Amino acid sequence: MGFLDNDGESWACFLVTFRDRAQRWHGYFSFRSKDGGSEVDGVRTADIFLEASESEIDQKARGLGRPLLNGLLASALHTQDQSDTTQLRRWFRNMLAENSLELSGPLGEMEDSVGDHVEVTQLRSLYASYRIDQVAHFIALLRPEDFEDAVGNILDGRVIDFSAKDRLQFAMLVVEYIESRLPLPPFEVWAKDYVANRNEYLLYSHTLHREGRLP
Questions:
Q1: 3-state SS track over 93-146
Q2: 62 lies in the same domain as 100
Q3: How do residues 45-71 score in pLDDT, each as one tens digit?
Q4: Which tens digit of pLDDT belongs to each residue from 140-186?
Q5: Using N-to-C axis directions, what is the helix angle for 120-141 and 167-181, rounded to 10°?
Q6: Is residue 215 situated within a structural domain?
Q7: Domain end among 81, 103, 124
Q8: How far apart, in whole angstroms, are the C-alpha atoms of residue 91 and residue 95?
């Protein structure tokens, strides 16, 4: 159906049709972020078409104007934004992003301040930031509902209450569980690669946290 713009981000619009047991045709719109890096990667409308044939749905869908399609996209994003599953994943990503940036310092300043030489203590802070980034990247790849299920399994069914004082303790259990299972390089291996490819690492962090999309 083409591409739509929402707050400067491009979304692909698809018409999805299917038949029910009574052989009636249903249809809805599905929207997917063009670069796959939005906080919400894909959303859909409710079933808004019910016709006797697939061609009738296609004709009606293509007769809708772009303002109406944009309105449907905004409505679908708003509905998804209210879900607890999306809120949980967003909260984790924001928390990890803040911690990663605190460890690494303002992006670009480390490059200017140390020149070609990076102290071991600085490298260890950057390595800790790198490990957090990998957890954040992994979480971003999961669908919100899958991430919520994973958190429930890790916490043995306990739910993270955003208003509770112990939410950070539960969150760290989840982060440590995920990090311990990611195939991350040891510090010595990572440090050599970082020194040789510093700009690539800076660009990666900038894209992941500042631009709000996946590298």
A1: HHHHHHHHHHHHCCCCHHHHHHCCCCCHHHHHHHHHHHHHHHHHHHHHHCCHHH
A2: no
A3: 888 888 889 999 998 888 887 888 888
A4: 888 888 888 888 888 887 766 656 566 677 888 888 899 989 999 99
A5: 90
A6: no
A7: 81
A8: 6
